[in-house]
Specification:
The complex is a heterodimer of chains A (122) and B (558). Chain A is mainly beta and 122 residues long. Chain A has strands at 2-4, 7-16, 21-23, 26-28, 31-36, 45-48, 66-68, 72-73, 84-86, 89-99, 111-118. In chain A, the strands form 3 sheets. In chain A, strands 7, 8, 9, 10 and 11 form a 5-stranded antiparallel β-sheet that branches. By secondary structure, chain B is an all-beta fold. Chain B contains 3 helices and 34 strands. Chain B has helices at 45-49, 177-180, 338-343; strands at 8-11, 27-31, 76-78, 86-94, 101-109, 120-121, 125-127, 139-141, 154-156, 166-171, 186-190, 196-201, 259-262, 268-274, 279-280, 290-291, 294-301, 304-305, 311-313, 353-357, 363-368, 374-378, 412-413, 434-440, 447-452, 466-470, 473-475, 481-485, 488-493, 498-501, 511-515, 520-524, 538-540, 552-556. In chain B, strands 13, 14, 17, 18 and 19 form a 5-stranded antiparallel β-sheet that branches. In chain B, strands 3-4-5-6 form a 4-stranded antiparallel β-sheet. The longest helix of chain B is centred in the middle third of the chain and has 6 residues, at 338-343. Mean pLDDT of chain B is 70; it is low at 318-334, 384-421, 423-429, 454-490, 500-513 and 524-558. The chains are: A mainly beta (122), B mainly beta (558). Chain A binds chain B through residues 1, 3, 6-7, 9, 11, 13, 15-19, 25, 29, 32, 34, 36, 38, 40-44, 53-54, 56, 68, 79-82, 86-87, 89, 93, 112-114, 116, 118, 120-122, and chain B through 1, 3, 11, 13, 15-20, 25, 63, 65-66, 254-256, 435-436, 438-440, 442-443, 447, 449, 451-460, 465-467, 469, 555-558.
């Protein structure tokens, strides 16, 4: 749960979905990050990373949160992990970074790391 | 960010947008180098823990073949530490292929990344009985290769207490290994000097000569580490389970940490859930040696702390289900009890435990087992009595439904009336496993969020996102929970309670209607009263006599 000085509560969830892709000895499951507003889940998410996973994910809201990364990644989940949120940023662990400056990350050998989403103006 | 390869990274969490500040997003410090033993302060934690030896490749942990040496659980930060805030983190050293793991605890300066106190290897030896796993000379040692420190660390502080802060963390073992590996559930507590203060073992009594209740059977002891049941073992199914008696009782809670709060009397409560494992009570003195499938509460006051649970809650249902709680027996009519939970891999508290205070100032503990049943417990009162913290949850007098135990006649509620009941969970992806919990205290009505997460979930469906809103139950003026209202309601009373008519017919004077000598469910209706007219308020005098498990409204998401 997050809020802005006690108002505007948002419930965040990070879920593993699907069977994923096997690379080497590891299976990397896709994940979805979703946010629900004051109306609760009955009103659907106010923002999420995949409308193909959550059908009610509002595609028009993507601009309100954007990915902070110059790298390429797939939203690859880490089992039982939860998002960390602070000061308008959402941090999620991933093992699916396929490109990163100064590293050898690739689609065949993805790296682990943190993906950051921002609600700040760019 | 802590990783399985033993690294820790500290990032500048400032504004990392292109217009942000200098250094935002940069790595402030990291523990990611291999340096000469003892010389470096920026090395991998395992490098110090293994004293420079190269990490081995695991053959004993779940993902055999990986260089598994590092940090599994989520660390905890003490922002009040001086001169700098510190990070507590457990780390694994593995120097060989198998059975060569040691666990360590580190205290790291959050500003520099350097260890503050010298890291300590986690070790312990506690009294054991009746042939429990690993017992030797009457003691059970902590054996690192048999354990997995998966649940997040928990820091508990109390102003003025010499022990404060205490950092709690727990051990269990990885899925699959719990059947074939002689492990125990352990709870540790370390102080700010990394001195071990608590070493608790949740399964210290084995089969041989064990006369506690429910029973263990010596002839089934060979079941451990072998296929079950062994030849000649013809006892009840739960007794034939490899996890029974002197084995297991670990905590994993989907990697969530314990939860802590301070009650109005100033006592801190650190609460954990214990999964598969035995639960038994000594019939003579009610002592527990096996604590499986329970919620445990480790208390501390300004003058000291408890080294074993002060109170606990253990579900106990019956074989048929039905009735008040819409329970479908999970496996071929087997009982929904702690025995049945263990038999069917229904770990207690896979959701973690969440503490929250509702709008009526009631302090709750909420947790879910792996079959999808939730348990709503009173904080500091897991068994239903605020005046007596003596453990009283042993289900000697069961009312016949999960979560119902002596002294606490109503703690469980199903995830939803129309949900598919989990069967045997191995390979079952259709049921809900609640692995995340959250509470929004400011919404109206207040709202709980439950997030089912399943490694093999194929999609997020509408029914997999739930909000439950407390509804129906009202809180009386003395704090009692009343199911229903007016002249018709159902409630439970425990010994010592009395039902009081506070209606105007008595000119405002309370009147004792009946005294209670045993756990009793009553339904008060108009016929029970002696007068007609407006609804009057009937309340049990005891503040915690009742819960209203069937009166929660569960709203499906979209």
């Amino acid at each position: 749960m997050t809020s802005n000085s006690g108002s505007g509560a948002v419930a965040w969830g990070l879920a593993i979905v699907g069977s994923g892709t096997t690379i080497g000895t590891e299976t990397l499951p896709p994940a979805v990050l979703a946010a629900y507003g004051a109306g609760g889940v009955a009103n659907g998410p106010i923002w999420c990373t995949s409308s193909s996973v959550i059908s009610t994910c509002p595609t028009t809201s993507q601009s309100t949160f954007f990915e902070i990364s110059e790298n390429s990644f797939s939203t690859t989940g880490v089992s039982f992990s939860i998002p960390t949120i602070n000061n308008g940023y959402v941090y999620i662990p991933t093992s699916g970074i396929t490109a990163s400056s100064g590293s050898s990350c690739s689609s065949s050998a993805p790296c682990s790391g943190v993906v950051v989403y921002s609600g700040h103006d760019e | 960010m802590a990783t399985l390869d033993g690294s820790i990274f500290a990032f500048n969490a400032g504004d990392i947008t292109p217009s942000g500040g200098t250094g935002a997003g940069d790595v402030v410090w990291s523990r990611t180098t291999q340096t000469t033993a003892g010389a470096g302060k920026t090395n991998y934690l395992w490098f110090d823990d293994c004293q420079g030896l190269a990490p081995g490749v695991s053959t004993t942990f779940r993902k055999a073949g990986l260089p598994f040496a590092g940090i599994v659980s989520t660390p905890v930060i003490d922002t009040a530490a001086t001169p700098d805030p510190v990070l507590y983190v457990t780390s694994l050293c593995q120097t060989g292929a198998s059975q060569s793991q040691q666990w360590w605890i580190h205290q790291i300066d959050l500003y520099t990344g350097y260890d503050v106190a010298a890291h300590q290897e986690i070790s312990a030896s506690v009294a054991g009985y009746d042939g429990a796993d690993n017992i030797s000379g009457g003691n059970i040692p902590f054996v690192g290769w048999q354990q997995l420190q998966r649940s997040a660390l928990l820091k508990v502080s109390l102003s003025g207490a010499s022990w404060s802060p205490l950092v709690y963390f727990t051990f269990g073992f990885a899925s699959g290994g719990e059947i074939t590996t002689p492990y125990h559930g352990w709870v540790f507590g370390y102080d700010s000097g990394l001195n071990q203060r608590i070493a608790f073992n949740a399964s210290t009594k084995g089969y041989t000569g064990n006369s506690d209740s429910p029973s263990c059977t010596a002839s089934c002891s060979e079941c451990i580490f072998l296929s079950c049941p062994p030849s000649g073992c013809t006892h009840s199914p739960y007794e034939e389970m490899a996890n029974w008696c002197g084995h297991g009782g670990g905590t994993w809670m989907s990697s969530r940490g314990g939860a802590a709060n301070q009650d109005p009397r100033g006592t801190t409560h650190a609460c954990y859930g214990v999964g598969n494992g035995p639960f038994q009570q000594n019939t003579a003195d009610t002592t527990l040696y096996n604590w499986g499938q329970s919620v445990l509460d480790f208390t501390a006051t300004s003058t000291g702390f408890a080294s074993s649970p002060t109170e606990y809650f253990t579900p106990n249902g019956n074989a048929t289900g039905g009735g008040q709680i819409p329970v479908t027996p999970p496996e071929g009519g087997s009982a929904y009890t702690y025995q049945g939970m263990n038999q069917n891999d229904f770990d207690m508290a896979v959701s973690g435990v969440m503490l929250y205070t509702d709008s009526g100032s009631n302090q709750w503990l909420l947790t879910f087992d792996k079959a999808g049943y939730g348990y709503l417990l009173r904080q500091a009162n897991l068994c239903g009595d605020t005046t007596d913290e003596t453990p009283q949850c042993f289900p000697g007098v069961s009312t016949g439904y999960p979560g119902f135990a002596t002294g606490d006649p109503g703690n469980a509620f199903p995830l939803a009336g129309n949900k598919t009941q989990c069967g045997n969970l191995e390979g079952d992806t259709s049921c809900d496993r609640i692995t995340s919990l959250a509470f929004d205290p400011d919404s109206s009505p207040q709202r709980l969020y439950l997030w089912p997460s399943n490694e093999t979930l194929t999609s997020i469906e509408s029914s997999n996102n739930q909000a439950i809103e407390p509804g129906g139950a009202t809180i009386g003026s003395n704090g009692a929970t009343i199911c229903g209202s007016g002249t018709s309601f159902t409630t439970w009373l425990v010994p010592g309670d009395a039902l009081i008519d506070e209606g105007s017919a008595n000119s405002g004077q309370s009147r004792i209607v009946t005294g209670i000598t045993s756990n009793t469910q009553i339904t008060v209706s108009q016929a029970f009263t002696t007068r007609s007219g407006p609804a009057r308020l009937w309340e049990p005098t005891h503040a915690v006599a009742a819960h209203c498990p069937t009166q929660w409204v569960i709203a499906a998401g979209s």
